[in-house]
Amino acid sequence: MARFSRIEVAIKMKETGVVPVFYNKDIEVCKSVVKACYDGGIRVFEFTNRGDFAHEVFTALVKWSAVECPEMILGVGSIIDGPTTALYLQLGADFIVAPIVDEEMARICNKRKVAWSPGCGSVTEVVRAHELGCEVVKVFPGSSVGGPDFVKAVKGPMPYASIMPTGGVSPDEANMSGWFKAGVHCVGMGSQLFPADVLAKKDWAFITNKCSEALAIAAKLR
Predict the structure, then answer these.
(1) What angle do the packed helices 123-131 and 147-155 form, to 10 degrees?
(2) CA 25, CA 23: separation in Å to the nearest integer?
(3) Phi first, then psi: what are they for 151, rounded to 5°?
(4) Rounded to an integer, what distance in angstroms lies between the CA atom of residue 34 and that of residue 216?
(5) Which of 9, 40, 71, 78 is the most exposed place for a label (fewest CB within 10 A)?
(6) Nearest to 83 by CA among 104, 100, 66, 63
(7) Would the pLDDT of 186 be above 90?
């Protein structure tokens, strides 16, 4: 069962402005990364459903996080169907992120009042996501869809749209300023926060510092 309501999720995404996106098959690596992000001020984290038995890793992670990082809102991304959505909700996901708009996923999340962020690449998809009860829309892949210009264009006729781009976002002011000036709700970041060499060296302090820097940039740009 989710520990945070969908309204709490949307508000915290807005407050912090940055949502890390990460997956690793090693539960100990996942714990270290989540803790490093938490120490850096992150309070919303997306675990991606990318590997075999990823749900088993998440099961252990969500139990550990509730104790060691009690304020962390832990969701799951890369979900593309209803059954997998239901599985992760049963395991305690606080929100679900998808690369697509899927009505079955929307219904399952809405029944449990869990936040759902579908991936949209057109104005029509954004409107459809709103109709299905989505609070924060994911733009994916952010840079390929049209970057900040796409966000700005959507916000023209729909200034109320809350948009979270993922893909093409990096933790530096030059990149982030374009997105925030366009009016994003928050941004999702993956490999830019977790370089392969940093993970190999287990340099968790690098991740903590990078998250802290990204949050400071987001706060400055608001």
Answers:
(1) 60
(2) 7
(3) -60, -45
(4) 18
(5) 71
(6) 104
(7) yes
Rounded to an integer, what distance in angstroms lies between the CA atom of residue 58 and that of residue 76?
8
What does pTM read for this prediction?
0.96
Contacts from 175-179 at CB under 8 Å and sequence distance 24+? 176/214, 176/217, 176/218, 176/221, 177/217, 177/221, 178/147, 178/148, 179/142, 179/148, 179/151
Q: Which long-range contacts (CB under 8 A, 24 or more apart) does 109-115 make?
A: 109/6, 109/85, 109/133, 112/2, 113/5, 113/6, 114/2, 114/6, 114/89, 115/6, 115/9, 115/10, 115/75
Instruction: Report whether 53 contacts 109 (CB < 8 A).
Output: no
Q: Count the Cβ atoms, other than its own, within 10 Å of residue 221.
A: 15
Tokens of 158: 């729909």
Find residue 163's DSSP bridge partners.
137
Edge-first strand listing for the sheet containing 119-120? 119-120, 137-139, 163-165
